[in-house]
Each structure stands twice: as structure tokens, then as C-alpha cells.
Amino acid sequence: MWIAAAVSVVFLLTSPVQAGIKDLSSHFQDPSPDPRGFQQGDAVDIEAIPLEFHKENTVTNDLVFEGFEDDDYIDFDKILAAGSDDYIEGDEIDEIATPAPDIDIFAEPSDPKTRRARLLRLFHGRSRLQRLNIVNAHFGFNLYRSLRNDVNQTDNILLAPAGISIAMGMMSLGAGSGTHDQIYKALGFAEFVNASHHYDNTTVHKLFRKLTHRLFRRNFGYTLRSVNDVYVKKDVSVKDAFRAETKAFYFAEPQSVDFKDPAFLDKANRRIQKLTKGLIKEPLKSVDPNMVLMLLNYLYFKGTWEQKFPKEMTHYRNFRVNEKTNVRVPMMTNKGNYLAAADHELDCDVLQLPYAGNISMLIVLPRKITGMRTLEQEISPTVVDKWLKNMTNRTREVVLPRFKLEQNYDLIENMKEMGLVDIFQESGDFTRMTTDKVAMNWLKHQGIIKVNEEGTEAAALTQVGFMPLSSQIRFTVDHPFLFLIYEHRTDCLVFMGRVVNPSQS
């Protein structure tokens, strides 16, 4: 079975004051701009990027959309072979503070000391890159909980925490001191930086660059690609340092566009559709002509099950949406060796379905059809770590619905709830990006995931409460469940969501 998923994260910034944007006599010109913001053969020295900011320039390089074939994606193998990145650094394990042994890290942290102790326990023995991804997953779970409170209990949910974190990391490059601190606190980057004296704010961006290298290379047996685009209104000044850093850390370079031109929407949508293999067709329905800056992140994943589900074994069966409602859906069936665990504290069972390439989907199934709320409330990186470290392998029969989810969210209110307030107000400080007054007024997140017999396509600390599923020989997913897609080399939570009704997208 193979699953494919695609996600688009959109950040739109508009200026409350459009008058007074000055024309500059000198312009930055790139005679042959790369649509990814990274030239073939470029050797970017991260250490050489100045942290202080230079004079501003108007971005004038033309937007390029055509000729973007599979072999046009960034060849990270070539970049690494050229020695242009300190790639090994992200895999280093730094010394961190040792938390007090008497702190219960599984308790809900009402005290900052408890929260920090729990994080440091998870960080122990992990690489820098894995530690950053633990923080990213923690943010993802909190964002999921905020979003869950805004939708109906019968709604399916799909999020790409990795894509959102990457986009917010890129956003923080343009933020002034106070706004930058707010982004770092809300996303958890500040906790990561404070975990070791070896880290500073720039470490986060270096590791996002490394995460791109690690996740999106082409020789791991799956397809996972992330592309960042930055579009800037013509004649708006963008500072050199922001331009240089977005290119070096996130492979994005500001492209000058005319948001009033109807052709922009068509070209941008065609580019997104191509990059996500047609999964996301028209994410941009309209664009405010007064737009100043737009940041886009696309995430595409296609994986093939290590053990494909035989198509002849798929039959329509009942799926219990709730205690009163059943739907008939195609249920896939396979028999093989699978890792699984039972969590008696959260009253759920967990199944690991591996894809080729050390990436897998975790199916988390509450034992009671009414148990989803508790599971959603308690899930965390600590809980997932327990699941993964307490799994046993045995022959099981797995029954799983075939499903496709297509979701679109405006996340501004959710981000405000999590502490990100300034970036959506005139008080937000983006002086490291531009001298023009800007504020974010649109934050969209769109995703699609398909799960079928082939696979998926999409643009232990303690053993308390755990018992191996040694006696369970059948794992039937016939009522609402959570799913998590993890890349295990980096501990990266790429996608997560819930399926309440697989008959609805």
C-alpha cells in the first residue's frame, strides 16, 4: 500500500500604510534566477552570513515557473558531496543539563521546571536535529488541540507540523527582537536554544537547513519534498540579510511580482499543482492587490508500504463513526509481522505501518469509540516515545480503511491562542525584513492525503501503563483513530491527523 500527501502553508502579509514606499536607485538583479532560490553549484557558507543587517534593496528578479521537472528539484546529494554544508553537526549529541530525577515527566506540567525536566529527558541521547524535531512535534500537537476545538467532533483533521515549523522558522528571520522572541517562544524554539550552551538562535535555522537535507534526499525509498517560495510586491524594499538568509537556510529567495496582475494567480497555482503532483490544484483563490509579501511552503510525500495490502482482500465493511452512525467503506486487509503496543493508561492500541525508507505511519486506535477526546488531549512527544519503545513484533491481521482527506484551515486564531499575537497586528516588528510597515493578515494551511493498498501519497523513559500486544493477533481499525507519519532518522513528525469518517474527504 502506498500513501501520498501534500500540504500547502500560506503566509500573506499586507501593509496597513501603502503610501511612502520609496523607489531605490540601485536594484538587486539576478540574470538567471532559480525558482527555488538556490543555484546549481552554489556553495553557501552558513557561517559567513552576517547577523547584522545591511542596506535594503528592491527585489527585481523575475518570477520563474516553467521547466520545473522532477530532475529540477534541489540535488542535495550533489550539494553534500561538494562539502558545502557542515552536515554532520546536526547529528552531534551535545551535553545538556540533567533534570532532577524525582520529577514526574509524565504529569501535566503545571510548573515550568516540570516542563523543562520532561523536555531534557526526551533530549537525552538525541542528536541536535532530533531535539529540534521533538520541539516541532510538541508545537504540532498543541496546534492540533487548538484546531480540534474549532471543528466538529465528526470532522476529519489533517496537519503538517513540519511544514508549519519550517515556514515559521523562515518568518522569524525577518522579525525584530520582540516579535522574534514571541515566535521562538510560541514555536518552542526558545526551549531548544536554552537546552545547551552550544546553541543560539542561528542554530535553529542551521538545523532546518539540515532537516531539508536529511528528509528530502532522493535515495531513501520514499519521495518527500518541501519547497519554500517568497513573493514580494514590486518596488518594495527587502533587506539584503533577509534575502541572503532565506536563500541559505530555507532555499527560498524573494521573487518580485505584481499581485494586481491576474496572471500571477494562474502561474502560482500552476506551480503549486506541479510541485505537489496535482494534489493541490488551486490553493490561491484570490490575492489582495495591496499584498506586500507572501510566503508559501509546499510539502509533498509519497511512500510505499513495506507490506502492500492485496487489493483482492479489500472489501466494504462498516466503520463506526459514533455510537449511532455507521458508514460502509472499503477496508483493506493484510497479514504480516507488525510492531504494536497497548497503552492501558490512555486506553488505546498503537500499530506501526512502515513505508520503505525508515518512515512509518502510526495508527492510534482508542479502545472505546468515545475515547478520542482523552487521547487527543494527552498525546505528546513523551507519549509517542513510550509507544515506540514498548512495541513488540508478531504476526497480525490488520484491517484498515482506505481514505482520502482534503482539509483547508485559516490558522490565525489558533496561532494567537498559542501566543503568536504581534505578527498579526501593526505592533509586529518585521524591520529585519523590510523598512515598510507590514503585518500578517492571512495564514492558510491546506493538505491532502491518500491512503490505499499501495501506500500513501500526500502533496523509552518508562514502561508504566504499557503492555505489549503479544496476545492480539487482529488489529481492526473500524472506528475513529489518529494517524502520525514519522521519519525515524530525524524523529520528524511530518503529518498528523484524525479519521472520524473515512467516507468523507
Give an account of the 3D structure.
The protein contains 12 helices and 20 strands. It has 505 residues and is α+β, with helices and mostly antiparallel strands. The radius of gyration is 23 Å and the shape is globular. The chain starts with a strand and ends in a 6-residue tail after the last strand. Keywords: Signal. Residues 1-19 form the signal peptide. InterPro entries: HCII_serpin_dom, Serpin_CS, Serpin_dom, Serpin_fam, Serpin_sf, Serpin_sf_1, Serpin_sf_2.
Helix-strand blueprint:
Elements: E1 2-14, E2 27-28, E3 56-59, H1 76-81, H2 112-123, H3 128-148, E4 157-159, H4 161-172, H5 177-187, H6 189-193, H7 201-215, E5 223-233, E6 237-239, H8 240-250, E7 254-257, H9 262-275, E8 291-304, E9 315-320, E10 326-343, E11 348-355, E12 359-366, H10 372-378, H11 381-389, E13 392-401, E14 403-410, H12 412-417, E15 439-451, E16 455-458, E17 466-468, E18 474-476, E19 481-487, E20 492-499
Parallel strand pairs: 1-16, 2-3, 5-7, 13-18
Antiparallel strand pairs: 1-8, 1-15, 3-6, 4-20, 5-8, 8-16, 9-10, 10-11, 10-13, 10-17, 11-12, 12-19, 14-15, 15-16, 19-20
Helix pairs in contact: 3-4, 4-5
